[in-house]
Amino acid sequence: MKNIEAQVPVAEHALLSASGAHKWLVCTPSARLEETFPETTSEYAEEGRLAHQIAELKLRKHFIEPMGPKTFNNKLKKLKENPLFQEEMLNHVDEYFNYVCKIALNYPSTPYVTIEKKLDYSTYVPEGFGTGDCIIIGGDTLHIIDFKYGKGVPVSAEDNPQMKLYALGALSAYSILYSIKKVKMSIVQPRLDSISEWEISAADLLTWGESIKPIAQKAFNGEGNFVPGDHCRFCRAKALCRARAEFNMSLESYNMMKPPIISNQEVGEILIKAQDLVKWVKDLEEYALSECLAGNDIPGWKAVEGRSVRQFTDQEAAFKVLMANGIDEAMLYERKPLTLASVEKLLGKAKFKELLDAYVETPPGKPTLVPESDKREPIRRISAEEDFKS
């Protein structure tokens, strides 16, 4: 495949990042507020960064830099020395790699491909830029592909602001060279067996870009009202944000209700307010603990050692002592079957499907309550009266 380039992503981050668009498009002052808090990372984020590096190496070898097995293996070996590396990471990266290859091969002629491309969307968002994992262009179609290594919840590509900002950046970069009319977006999450795809016309995407300009300007200026919501869990100010605190504490207003039994309307309203309450309290606890451990005072609270669990200093040596004293080795171990997920991990998805697909079923999940905005179809129970009428 020809006409392909790659660019190493820069380390700096935009104030109005594409990944944070779901926050600052709703809660415009949040970006400036987050600036006052230090950036943090986590083991999960570092694990994702390593997976992206392996994916880039594989894509680079396949599309950009022909390299012999020795060179490739040496580079891969260095990445595998990272303590966060696990062998299963290679399988998950391969799923993303294979998806990119499939998309590229589906174009009627050799497309243009670039990976880890810095994208400038500052035409619509002040100082806005980000890094696109993979961009493929052929004919009149631009395809943006995002690789997410996390295993939290599936992320939908539908109307996704992060993907749309990346697409706007790609349109700005390539519209002079290509007559792009369609924009396709994909989010690949191999650890969740999730690939979400969505398509929008270039014209509609540009219209959306124009529509967010005033919102982005307010966010850049730190103006507007704080709007608590589900997006708060990704905000660095989530523990100390006053608007979030006031929103959660507003449940006290329900103490003034007079009727002895609340209505379904009130149940719905309380649940909407309360769904973030547990998350907020957990965020406060984590913040307070970190402050106490740093030697700062949180009135009424202190950090102590939690419950400790006994453990062997050397289990193998301890078991040898037991066996030497007449304890049967079989008494010291439990034999239990692997879970379905563990067997699939052991065999690999293809072999698992080949051998065991006939023995696997996916029963309906346990009914659970979710906000009306959830994309899953609602369960509708038929009452005995309705059943009788039918």
Task: Tell me the domain tally.
Answer: 2
Residues in helices, as a percent range: 40-55%
How would the global form be characterised?
globular
Strand content: 5-15%
Strand/helix succession: EHHHHHEEEHEEHHHHHHHHH
Q: Main beta sheet, described?
A: 6 strands, mixed
Unreliable parts: 1-11
Question: What multimeric state do the chains show?
Answer: single chain
Number of helices: 15
What is the first-to-last residue Cα distance? Answer: 61 Å
Structural class: alpha/beta
Across the major sheet, the strand order is 1-2-3-4-5-6
Mean pLDDT: 87
Say how many strands there are.
6
Radius of gyration: 26 Å
Protein name: DUF2800 domain-containing protein
Pfam family, one: DUF2800
Keywords: Hydrolase
GO molecular function: hydrolase activity
Care to describe what's here?
- With 390 residues, the protein is an alpha/beta fold.
- It is 42% helix and 12% strand.
- The protein has 15 helices and 6 strands.
- The protein has a 6-stranded mixed sheet.
Short description:
The protein has 15 helices and six strands. The chain is an alpha/beta fold.
Per-chain topology:
Blueprint lengths: L3 E3 L14 H4 L5 H6 L7 H22 L4 H12 L7 H18 L6 E9 L8 E10 L2 E7 L13 H14 L7 E8 L4 E8 H10 L1 H9 L20 H8 L14 H11 L2 H17 L21 H10 L15 H8 L1 H8 L27 H6 L1
Parallel strand pairs: 1-2, 4-5
Antiparallel strand pairs: 2-3, 3-4, 5-6
Give a quick set of tags describing it.
globular; 390 residues; single chain; alpha/beta; 6 strands; 15 helices; 42% helix; 2 domains; six-stranded mixed beta sheet
